[in-house]
Amino acid sequence: MSFNSLRxxxxxxxxxxxxxxxxxxxxxxxxxxxxxxxxCADCDKASRHIHPDIITVERLDNKLIISVDQIRxxxxxxxxxxxxxxxxxxxxxxxxxxxxxxxxxxxxILEEPPAHTVFVLCTxxxxxxxxxxxxxxxxxxxxxxxxxVAVGAGGAVVAVGESDDVLPxxxxxxxxxxxxxxxxxxxxxxxxxxxxxxxxxxAFQSFLSQAREQVVLxxxxxxxxxxxxxxxDFSNFSKREALIQADEILTKAGEMLDxxxxxxxxxxxxxxxxVKP
Length: 277
Description:
Shape: globular
Helix content: 40-55%
Number of strands: 7
Strand order of the largest sheet: 2-3-4-1-5-6-7
Distance between the termini: 45 Å
CATH topology of the largest domain: Rossmann fold
Strand content: 5-15%
CATH superfamily of the largest domain: P-loop containing nucleotide triphosphate hydrolases
Low-confidence stretches: 143-167, 226-234
CATH architecture of the largest domain: 3-Layer(aba) Sandwich
Mean pLDDT: 78
């Protein structure tokens, strides 16, 4: 299994079978190819479990839970830049053992994660995690014995691996146009909705997953802009507000799709919710 270098998400939920591959993909030096390459120095260190940018959080001294204090310590550490790789991987073992306070503290990190971090929540029971935590992660599942899929917000499914880049014709362009229109181009936004309305259910699932990934990526980039921008720069603030709102709307749209609401009705909901007065 490999991950396209342009499609690595900021957070995953998976079981133990994918954890090492994910962590290796995060630190892999092959930025322009499928990761992990398993040939670079970073992959070598990851395979030998000595990479300084792969950090594991787990229950201490055989305790039953991961405590809120452990998550608070993680929260302080995430803002420290990587030692060797471009990104750091944080593996949370037995993530379902986080109590409610710990999960809420972790949610604060997931909402605005630093661009150089990827979180891997390892659990055999994803449903034990808070819905708000699950909605901000991509869930990896194994189906039909070997095929691997990534389940995004609301259950949208896209393949991982060689087929990860295979999308219905024009969908990548449509997704890009939609995210671009979110910051105030109402005409372009409505044009996107007419195009979305023509998608079949599978393509619509892919659109929701792709759109939310791009929105989260745009939010991470705008966080960097905000840190260096003048405090009176309201344009960047307005953009971030629009992106945050879009993230919530796309999550809700995924939940509606799970309830078998038609793509046309959901497209109308997205348009009505995102159009700026």
